[in-house]
Amino acid sequence: MSKIKVLIIDDSSVIRSIVREIIESDPLLEVVGEAQDPFVARDQIKKLNPDVLTLDVEMPKMDGITFLSNLMRLRPMPVVMLSTLTTKGADITLEALELGAVDFIAKPSFELLLENRMAFKETLIDKVKSAVIVDQKSYQLSSAIAKSIEGGTLAFSGCKRANHVIAIGASTGGTDAIKSVVRMMPINCPPIVVTQHIPPKFSERFAQRLNGNCAVTVQEAKHGQKMKEGNVYIAPGDKHLKVAAKSGSLFCTLEDTEPVNRHKPAVDVLFYSLEPIANNVQAVLLTGMGQDGAHGMLALKKSGARTLIQDKASSLIWGMPGSAYAIDAHTHEASLNDVAKELLSFAKLSRDEMKEALHG
């Protein structure tokens, strides 16, 4: 098997050296070149024909967004963004994902990198390998998603059941996929809780950007917050999000505990927390790398929840939904463009109609 060829684009020679050492530690990867700015990178791409790029979001001479936009227009290829853990870095990265970048990894400070080198190493290698699998599908799906959300919100007559809740889990490709679903939701939709694998500052900016493009209210979840219809609650990037039922209402709860499935927030934590009210839950797994959420979804299915996975054709990476499929954790499967419609159609059913829809 030929090695995966990687081109590193970063203006910092220190970061380039670290990334090179990490990538070349894996026998399936090789660094074919380095570039300190997009102009050098452009020539390197033509000369070296890499399979994947790692791209710093903030670059000299030409910013990363301009370079990525040109690249996706002229020669779409897998790109993993290296992002600073700042508000500016978060905004640029989220825009890059909308343009067709496959994924991103938060670039830690030099001090944090020394402390958490192994975790950074594992994550970077995983993301580079996954990017190759995605290939040009990233840009194509991004364009399709943009078209799918042009139609606005869907009509909804209202939910016939109190405290019906929609729970969504996603990872790689999830920011665009979640946007596609949430953009279609009307202001009287059931409350929606979301766990997306994303760092702290990124989760806050993701919620804010999404809120500016939707009819519903999107916010980063707060501990003890009462859940209301027409609201979407995004898990903070450094806390697990759970749902608790108290005194006839639902509340967001946040936990600062250990990562689960290497993730914090973790989808499984959210899904397992919903077991006590499973017969009033719709759990959704969208595109994402790994298997987080699959076993929690299976538990919810066994407890009476409606469980929906995104199909393979519309997923950037069919890891999380595919893992759920493999253990038969889903009751339904749908293309990304149909997920919002599916959720609302089920949400308007009475309890008896819901049982019939689930069990025939």
TrEMBL record:
Question: Which keywords, in A-to-Z order, does the entry hold?
Answer: Chemotaxis, Cytoplasm, Hydrolase, Phosphoprotein
UniProt catalytic activity? [protein]-L-glutamate 5-O-methyl ester + H2O = L-glutamyl-[protein] + methanol + H(+); L-glutaminyl-[protein] + H2O = L-glutamyl-[protein] + NH4(+)
List, from the UniProt record, the residues annotated as the active site of this protein: S171, H197, D292
Q: What is its EC number?
A: 3.1.1.61, 3.5.1.44
Any one Gene Ontology MF annotation carried by this entry is: protein-glutamine glutaminase activity
- EC class (word): hydrolase
Q: Which InterPro entries match?
A: CheB-like, CheB_C, CheY-like_superfamily, Sig_transdc_resp-reg_Me-estase, Sig_transdc_resp-reg_receiver
Q: Which residues carry this modification: 4-aspartylphosphate?
A: D56
Phosphoprotein is among the record's keywords: yes
Question: What PROSITE patterns is this protein classified in?
Answer: CHEB, RESPONSE_REGULATORY
| Compartment list | Cytoplasm
The residue ranges of the CheB-type methylesterase domain are 155-350
Q: Which residues constitute the signal peptide according to the record?
A: none
This protein's GO cellular component annotations are: cytoplasm
What does UniProt say on post-translational modification here?
Answer: Phosphorylated by CheA. Phosphorylation of the N-terminal regulatory domain activates the methylesterase activity.
Provide the domain comment.
Contains a C-terminal catalytic domain, and an N-terminal region which modulates catalytic activity.
The name this protein goes by in its record: Protein-glutamate methylesterase/protein-glutamine glutaminase
Origin organism is Thalassotalea algicola
